Amino acid sequence: MGYETITVTQCTPNIGAEIGNVDLTKPLKEAQVKEIHKAVIAHGVIFFRDQKIDFASHDRFVRYFGQPHEHIGGDYTASKRIPNFPGIRKQYFDANSARVAGEDWHSDQSYGEIPPTFSILYQEQVPPNGGGDTMFLSASKAYEELSPGMKAYLEGKTATHVGGKSFDKIPGSRPAVVHPVVTVHPESGRKLLFVNSSFTSHINDVPAAESEHVLQYLYEHLKRPHWQMRFRWHDHSIAMWDNRCTQHMAIWDYWPNVRSGYRMFLKGVERPLPA
Ligand code: SIN
């Protein structure tokens, strides 16, 4: 389980690791890419410090793992495409922001038929006195800690996921898709809970009240501190997370300060697999 080309320092027993001995402003060696991939599969989310990347380096890093995925849905004030790099979005929040991206728990674009596998977020500027942390949770560990009775109840169930507020400008345009409630990660083989409070509207084929109560229970269970962590950004930090087995939430506690960065997604290759 060792690493030869990078250093990997776990943040918590169940989620997160900080990666060292790598310079993402320069092309990487194949062995480094393999070990970074191994680390993100093992820990769900990995972090890099002091990486002053430009758009080309960001794009190059993503392409080591597959193809960029273009965001489903339009621009909004705080999250916009940039010229020449269709996979990069600028996430800029300041005193004039009405909202910030990702303020409730979610996995990115779970309302897509094939959601993005990884997200790679680079922060260029973070608030001067702290704030703007991102929370992450392990949906695999959360699943593993459910009771046998709850696991049996969830087996074979599906849920509907619906696109978020960024679709409101175009009435009727919110995408909706059905995914299994429990999926299996195609690379780690671990089962996980694939429902989130931002985009999952209901569990299918059960009464509405039952769906609501079960989802509430699962959301509370998912966000237990035992399998979550909080990442404190610095200028030029990067986080790379696996949307197939983690959820995250951005904390907007820094108004009126500026938090500004760039995010890319990695295109998924298959629908979430039923467990
Ligand atoms: C997101 O949910 O896409 C943004 C996360 C963050 O800004 O910390």
Which features characterize this protein?
19% helix, 275 residues, alpha+beta, binds succinic acid, three-stranded antiparallel β-sheet, Double-stranded beta-helix, 18 strands, 5 helices, nine-stranded mixed β-sheet, single chain
Question: How would you describe this structure to a colleague?
Answer:
With 275 residues, this protein is an alpha+beta fold. The protein has a single domain, classed as 4-Layer Sandwich (Double-stranded beta-helix). It is 19% helix and 31% strand. The chain contains five helices and 18 strands. Strands 1, 2, 3, 4, 5, 6, 7, 15 and 17 form a nine-stranded mixed β-sheet that branches. Strand 2, helix 1 and strand 3 form a beta-alpha-beta unit. The chain is globular and about 50 Å long. It starts with 6 loop residues before the first strand and ends with a strand. Succinic acid binds next to strand 16.
